[in-house]
Automatic annotation (TrEMBL):
It is an enzyme of class 1 (oxidoreductase). It is a multi-pass membrane protein. NCBIfam families: NDH_I_L. Its main location: membrane. It comes from Streptomyces hesseae. It is found in: Endomembrane system; Membrane. This is NADH-quinone oxidoreductase subunit L. Keywords: Membrane, Oxidoreductase, Transmembrane, Transmembrane helix. It comes from the Bacteria. The chain crosses the membrane at residues 6-23, 35-56, 76-100, 112-131, 137-157, 169-188, 208-224, 245-263, 269-296, 303-321, 327-352, 373-394, 424-447, 468-487, 499-521, 645-664. Pfam families: Proton_antipo_M, Proton_antipo_N. Residues 68-115 form the NADH-Ubiquinone oxidoreductase (complex I) chain 5 N-terminal domain.
Amino acid sequence: MSTTTTAVLVPLLPFLSALAGFLTGRRVPGLVRPLAVLPTLAAAVLAIVVACRQGGGEALDAATRLTPTGSVPIDLALHLDGFAVLVAVLVGVVASCVQLYSTAYLRDDPRYPSYAALVSLFTSAMLLVVYTGDLMVLLVGWEIMGICSYFLVGHYWETEAARSASLKAFLVTKLGDVPFLIGIFALAADAGTFRISGIVSTAASGGLQHPTLVALLLLAGVAGKSAQFPLHTWLPDAMAGPTPVSALIHAATMVAAGVYLVARLLPVFAASAAALVVLAVMAAVTMVGSALAALAQDDIKRVLAYSTVGQLGYMTGALAVGDRGAAVFHLISHGAFKALLFLGAGVIIHAAGTNSLAAMARMNGLAKRIPDAYWTMTVALLALAAIPPFSGFFSKEAVLGAAEHAATGDAHGIPAAAAGPAGWTVLIAGLVTAVLTAGYATRLWLLAFHGKGAEAPDHGREPVAINGVLWVLFLPTAALGLAAWKLPDWFDGRSLTPGLTTSVLSTGCALAGALVMYAAWRRTAALTARTPLGAVAADPEAAPAVSEIEAIASHEPAYGTIAAASDPADPGRLLLGPLHRHAVTGFHLDAVYSTLLVRPTRAAARLARFLDREVVDAYVRGAATAPGLLGAAVRRAQTGNVQTYLGALLAGSVVLAVAAVLVATGA
């Protein structure tokens, strides 16, 4: 089988799995799990085969004309280079782990058939985005992911949090997709093609007429899909969905799509110094703001969600300084350890019976109850904090190294006017974020696994399908950094090995953040016993998904908000001080959007409804009333009395005769 045929099967198999799941899930429940796991696993294996065959060599392109449009044609195109094949391996492996994990996590869920089919469709859409060589086909996968995220985030639709989160995710991402679509058409008009290779060639040769406008329009869609400031607010709320969905969205699909798109179209952005500076500023604000917000969250999954926003900021920062190899390296590394962190968080929520770190801090022995999750998550948190020798250290160092090169005037492929400002912005923000990242990673580890109080409930070991997946993801989390010396052959050839200056600075920042957080925890730990807090409403004996639903539903009634808990023993509260109340709400961006967008939109909707009912409908009702009144008047003349009809006829004849006489005499 040729490489092209094998690559076509990679997104096709999950799509067929989704189709079969939708058609037969309810009728043949015994086939649901095999249909969910096996095709996705086969797609992952085929993605690895394609990657091995491509081997980082020359890009492989294949295309067939999908439809003539009369102007710019649309092609069903395939583009396989080092970036595409490695990202596809990440998507296939993480999706397979999520499907396998879900068979145990959602084992008693009556909606599991539709859930599994949607996960397969989600996976297929992302693989289509990764492999396609045509922007219009990419747009299809891009929008399918948006629809799938709406249904998957709202899977626990019984809870208000899930219903509102799914709607918010859909609307916020669509807000970015509108200018994104305009940008695609503007780009195709400038380049004369939707083919990515043709667009890149045109951009590299300076053939784009409006590079800044196009880049900023595309950036709006990227900000929405990859949860970058200011369109990142949907991602923390999306934690109301099932934990495996969170792992899939954060690690390998939806939020990775925007970063991957910019990497594919980097020459378009590099054609505009202004666009690169905007991208750098967006990355810097995203990194620092999300890390501060993560320090204040009480829901363990919201901590990880804000962490994802920040790590995506590192990736967009690398793109802003013109190094897509560093960006995709961090995307792949982050995908491994973030999937592990989310799936491990699902184990913690099940074991503790709560998603609240404040409640876990008052629970003793949780680490002993779930040793697999404890050890694998410990390594994943070290990777998140960029502690050597784990994968996150090497990929984050590649980003900081690229920023250092740009700041010192050694950047390649981007305008000199953008290199200095973008480089210094990303470098300084990256180092500040390194301190904060280590801080919130340490806080999560201490509060979740080293609490003091009543013994954590013991419900035995988690199923093999859950623990096995954690150890599978542990391998790349621990060892993927070793690929830093080989990946340049697959990417653009630029070195990804750590530099001395940034390695020392970032590792020192990470250690400082961890030590400061540890000291704050030691100071506040005594308050844990003196301040009873924490509602464990879920039943650890229930299926994991049931525990999660109850934990999500009980958090706001117990603490007053879905995001935080008024815990004086929280070291994050101590360190943030007055900033805590702002950080816990994501710096009030939702309130700003409510004032600037939601309320005016609702007011406009009320006005439109009033005009429709009281003005437009008034004309409609009037048009119906007038004939009705005329008909009523005519109906009164229809008495059925012959003498009345003859009298009216005689009177009419007399009137006509008199009128005729008057006309004839000229009166």
